[in-house]
Every structure is written in C-alpha cells, then in structure tokens.
Amino acid sequence: MGITLQNINKSFKNFDALKNINFSIKQGELVALLGPSGCGKTTLLRIIAGLETASSGKIYFADTDVTQLSAKQRDIGFVFQNYALFRHMNVAENVAFGLKMKPRSIRLSKTAINERVNQLLGLVQLENFAKRYPDQLSGGQRQRVALARALASKPNVLLLDEPFSALDAKVRKDLRRWLRDFHHELNVTSLFVTHDQEEALEVADKIILMNQGQIEQIGTPAEVYKQPKTAFVAHFLGDVNLLHGYIENNTLIIGDFRKDMKEQGNWADQSAIAYVRPHEISIAKTARKNDIQGQVVRIHTAGPTVFLEIAVAGQPKHIDVSVSYRQYEQQQVELGDNIYWQPILVNIFVQDELFEFMI
C-alpha cells in the first residue's frame, strides 16, 4: 500500500514544526526520513501513524484518505526506539499480544495465533528464543522482537522511529543489513526515521531529507549523495571540502583548476563555493593539466584508508583527501611534500546559500 502526503503542516503555539510537506511512497518501498535532531521527522512519522494530528493537509494510504482516522484504524505497525516490550511477558507472548487484544469477532484462534507467532519468530531468526524474557536478550534481539510484534497483525504500513539508535555500532551495522534483506522478503511499505546518514544511505530505497521542518531533497541514496540539490544536503550527507572560487562564463575557477559547470545550470559570474568530498579528489606527485598545487601538512592512517591534509594557497582551510593505503604507498607521499590535486566530482553553490555553514 502506497502513502501520499499533501501539504502537511504542523504548528505548536508559535512554532512551525512542519511546513508544506509533500511526498509519495510506492507500495513495498523502504524509505528513510533523514535529518538532524529537531528537524520534524519524528513529528511527521507520528502524524502518519495517527498519534499526532496535522494542523492542515491530507494523508492517503493508497486511495483512502486516512487523515481523520485514529492510529488503530490506520492498520500500521510501529517500532519504537526503546523497544517498548513487556518485561513480564516472554518473547512469544510479546509478539502475540496485539493479536490477542483484537475484538473477539475478528480475533484469530489460539492455534492460528501460535502459528503466526512461530512464523514471525522464524522470519526474525529468533525461533529458539520464544520462552525467553526481554532482559535475557541482547539489544539487537529485543529490537527484532519489537519488529515481529509490529508485523503480527499484517499491517499495510510499517513505521520505525530510530529503530537502531540505542544499539552499539557493530550490532547496528549487522541489523541494518538484516533489515534490508528482511524487508525485501516482506514487501511491506516502510518508513523509518533516522539521523544516521550512513544508515539511510545503506538501507533505504529512497531518502527524504528534512531540515527545519521542510523537505530539502527526495531521491535515491545515489542521487542525494552525488547530486545534492542544496548546500545543506551536501553538507549533511558526509565530509566535504569547501573550496573558495568563482564562476566566469559558466566555468568554475579555483586557482589553476577549471571546470565547465553548464551541466549544473547557467551561472551568473560570481563568487562560489565548490563542495568536494575527500574521496573525490585525485592526487599526483607531478603536475598534470588542471592541477592545483598544495603541501602535505598531515598524514593519518586508519586501516585501509589514509587521510591527507593539504595546505593550499588562497584556501582558508586545509583540504582533506582520503585515498586507499595502496594508492598512498604507490604515490610515496610524505609529510611536507608538494602535491598536485584536482577535484573529480564537484557541486557548486553560491556564497549566499552557504552563509550558515561559513560562520
């Protein structure tokens, strides 16, 4: 079942938490609602769930207007950040709870409930943990129980609020991969809230990136990462170098570097900032056409990756470059060396748009 939001707004007294939110999610998509803390993503998720009321706008599940329906009537599964499991119930009882609470007229038989619980525990790979209690499980196992419980009634839509944020990094990474595979098996329309860029980029089919109650960009992980529509998106989705230059005749000029920017639109002659990620920079020990000269002022090795800091004339900050350890050895880069470099992938924004990041 697809989801469509039309002109959703939410205000609390004098504060506008959500401003003119519009998007659609296709049946079976796994979508990340991504943004910094306080950007409105959890409020939006709660409005979709029916736990909060929008100040204005419409919500559709498929072709049905659910704006005025209660959470119970919307047929959604909700997974909370803190698991929300009943401590006095074992795993099987937690998963079965919602099924047992249904009105008698539509409640499954005891046998059918047990079959459904066993099926779900198999899906979340906890079939041998049915009799254990929440305090006997790891954080990752508890979250899988919460997911099984949310799916017990076969909801049309699955909503997850920061489902992995309380877990340590290793467990979080394992669960991300598991959720991706698990979701493809289920084919249920899912929306999850996260502030973790890596999580959204790895797991989601589509990312809705929010900032200050508004949508900044919607797209696939590759689209939002490689083709950011705003300076905020480029800045939020990973480390970037801000290179000071200017545009002249639709050409970006940074020192001796020139790049035709017509593919990104027609630009007036003006000062600009080029956003370049550390791994999107090519380096060499001898000068090539279009290279910028700099000096290596710091080298830091982190496993298979080597991070270089390069001081460049005319740039207020050092340039960060990341290369593979193999490339680093081949280049034989040493501290204090002159180095030649140039951006591979560039996104540019005019200085006014970047003011908030330059303070």
From TrEMBL:
Has the keyword Transport been applied to this entry?
yes
Any single GO CC term annotated in Swiss-Prot or TrEMBL for this entry: ATP-binding cassette (ABC) transporter complex
- Domain ABC transporter, first and last residues per copy: 3-237
Q: Which residues form the signal peptide?
A: none
- Give the Pfam families listed for this entry: ABC_tran (PF00005), CysA_C_terminal (PF17850), TOBE_3 (PF12857)
- Record key words, sorted: ATP-binding, Cell membrane, Membrane, Nucleotide-binding, Sulfate transport, Translocase, Transport
MF annotations from Gene Ontology: ABC-type sulfate transporter activity; ATP binding; ATP hydrolysis activity
Alphabetized InterPro entries for the sequence: AAA+_ATPase (IPR003593), ABC_SmlMolc_Importer (IPR050093), ABC_transporter-like_ATP-bd (IPR003439), ABC_transporter-like_CS (IPR017871), CysA_C (IPR041193), Mo/tungstate-bd_C_term_dom (IPR008995), P-loop_NTPase (IPR027417), Sulph_transpt1 (IPR005666)
Q: Please give the SMART domains that the UniProt record associates with this protein.
A: AAA
From the Swiss-Prot or TrEMBL record, give the protein name: Sulfate ABC transporter ATP-binding protein
Species of origin reads Gilliamella apicola
